[in-house]
Design goal:
It is built from 14 helices and 18 strands. The protein is of the alpha+beta class. It folds into 4 domains: about 5-30 and about 140-170, no CATH class; about 35-135, Beta-Lactamase (2-Layer Sandwich); about 180-295, PAS domain (Beta-Lactamase, 2-Layer Sandwich); about 335-525, 2-Layer Sandwich (Alpha-Beta Plaits), CATH 3.30.70.270. The protein has a 6-stranded antiparallel sheet, with helices on both faces. Strands 12-13-11-16-17-18 form a 6-stranded mixed sheet, with helices on both faces. Strands 2-1-4-3 form a 4-stranded antiparallel sheet, covered by helices on one side. It is rod-shaped, with a radius of gyration of 63 Å.
Length: about 525
């Protein structure tokens, strides 16, 4: 159903009042009536014709009267006919055409367009001059519109409607809408901690509660009529104003917009941050009359959140430092600081896991003990610094050849232990020979380096990791006693007799293996 806005309804009421005043003035004859003036003029013309007729009759010049009446009717378009009629109904003179209603002897005296003037003789009515005029106004609606009072009233109605409408819209922009709001409602709005603003369809503030006025540092009265977007709004962490505002979106799209962040630079309170919620005020048919916007001050929350973020960043940095220190401590706890190889404690922890896995799933597992030849004499002749460099060089060389799954440990002093998962004793011996050749090919500060190797595997039925290491260590002892710089494999028995050493691969016998590329991973020998 179509509904008029309050401004239009008030305007129509004022227009009707104006029209009533105009019609009342016409009824009181305060407005000149041209119809009365015209009727009076017709009567005067008729009286003049009566006087001329009287003179013509006295002179018995009826023909001159007839001619005068014809000329008069011919020159005045409003006159339909003119007649001089005696008291007994006899027509002495006539000009023009009479309608059927006047063709008889009797005349319709009620006709408003018929003017009659009596002529007296000897104090008695002797004759009558009758003037038949055209109607002042045509019949029907066209005749009604021709009436001056109708035109005047229509002019006042149409002109006053637009004038009143323009005036009402202009004047309402400057009226205080709070005067139309009950005091208890305004008081309730002023008690709210968040700012509340009512905007009209042109984004002008028509109502602002005390909280919003206090935040922006202005009085509520001074905010009336101000466009909300003309305040110093910016986006958070940006000096530029937003491309669009939430209250404009709500008005344009006819739906609420919530949680829109905006910052406002104020004189008294500095930079404030608000969460803006906007909802359209509808007048039906999805047409918005304005917007209700709320401004929740989150400045303190954002400041605390920023402080919290800084604290979290500090904690994160501290956590990273602690994690880095823990990594360093872990390395110090599990690695030999000189060679960066696993220390004995961490090595045996891994060894236990690999040993149990190999036993459970029947995998091969080999252990190689390595000892640098004549290391004591290197320390004695070249110093402990040179000895440390030799240890580092040997460790680096062994790491460069090992697989990722192989495990290297500095077992103690100049000894190293290598764990080879999924490698049988034969391939472990071949791999150890590559290790030996690689170590023998390096020098450190002019010092020639060689090493001896002892090899054992689960093939020899070691039931603990320590026994497997002991087997490899005893094979290493045999390698040292057999002339060094060689690879020795543990024999078939767990504890060979003293007169029978473990299987020995003598140094000259393995010379032919030097052609193996030491850069290849030794597990390729098992392929």
């Amino acid at each position: 159903m179509f509904r008029l806005t309050p401004v239009v309804r008030i305007t129509l009421a004022l227009v009707l009042l104006t029209a009533t005043l105009v019609l009342s003035a016409d009824m009181l004859n305060l407005i000149p009536n041209p119809s009365l003036a015209m009727l009076e003029a017709r009567k005067m013309v008729c009286e003049s014709m009566a006087i001329f007729g009287t003179l013509s009759v006295e002179r018995e010049d009826i023909e001159a009267l007839q001619t005068t009446m014809q000329v008069f009717v011919h020159r005045n378009e409003d006159v339909l006919s003119a007649t001089l009629r005696l008291s007994d109904g006899t027509v002495l003179a006539r000009a023009g055409k009479l309608s059927s209603s006047h063709s008889g002897s009797k005349i319709d005296r009620s006709a408003v367009n018929l003017v009659s003037v009596p002529i007296f003789k000897d104090d008695q009515q002797w004759a009558t001059v009758e003037m038949h005029y055209k109607p002042l106004y045509p019949k029907g609606i066209a005749g009604i519109w021709e009436r001056p009072i109708v035109k005047l009233t229509a002019f006042f109605i149409s002109a006053s409607f637009f004038l009143y409408l323009f005036f009402m819209r202009k004047i309402l922009q400057y009226l205080d809408p709070s005067s139309a709001i009950p005091a208890r409602v305004k008081a309730a709005l002023d008690t709210l901690a968040e700012g509340v603003v009512v905007l009209d369809h042109k984004e002008r503030i028509v109502l602002a509660n005390a909280a919003f006025a206090k935040k922006v540092g202005r009085s509520a009265e001074s905010l009336m009529g101000v466009k909300a977007s003309t305040l110093n709004w910016t986006l958070p962490n940006d000096s530029k104003p937003p491309e669009d505002y939430p209250w404009l979106k709500a008005m344009r799209e006819g739906r609420p917009f919530t949680g829109f962040p905006l910052t406002l630079q104020t004189k008294n309170n500095g930079l404030l941050m608000f969460m803006v919620n906007s909802a359209p005020i509808s007048e039906g048919k999805n047409k918005s009359r304005g917007v209700l916007a709320t401004f929740d001050d989150v400045t303190e929350v954002e400041q605390k959140n920023e402080q919290l973020q800084k604290m979290l960043k500090v904690l994160k940095n501290s956590q990273n430092k602690i994690q880095s220190q823990n990594e360093k401590l872990k390395i110090l706890a599990t690695r030999d600081p000189l060679t960066r190889c696993l220390n004995r404690r961490s090595f045996f922890k891994i060894f236990e896991t690999e040993f149990k896995r190999a036993k459970r799933y029947g995998h091969d597992l080999s252990c190689v003990m390595v000892d640098i030849d004549h290391f004591k004499s290197i320390n004695d002749r070249h110093g402990h610094l040179a000895g440390d460099q030799v240890l580092q060089k040997v460790a680096k060389t062994l790491r460069s050849i090992l697989r990722e799954s192989d495990i290297l440990c500095r077992y103690g002093g100049e000894e190293f232990c290598i764990l080879l998962p999924h490698i049988g004793v034969e391939n472990a011996v071949k791999a150890s020979e590559r290790f030996r050749v690689s170590v023998a090919s390096i020098t450190c500060s002019g010092i020639r380096i060689t090493a001896s190797f002892g090899v054992s595997s689960l093939k020899f039925e070691a039931d603990t990791p320590q026994k497997l290491v002991d087997q490899a260590d005893k094979a290493l002892y045999v390698a040292k006693e057999s002339g060094r710089n060689r690879v020795i494999q543990w024999g078939q028995t767990k504890d060979p007799p003293e007169d029978k050493a473990p299987n020995v691969i003598p140094y000259p016998a393995v010379a032919e293996m030097k052609t193996i590329n030491s850069n290849h991973p030794h597990h390729e020998a098992s392929v």
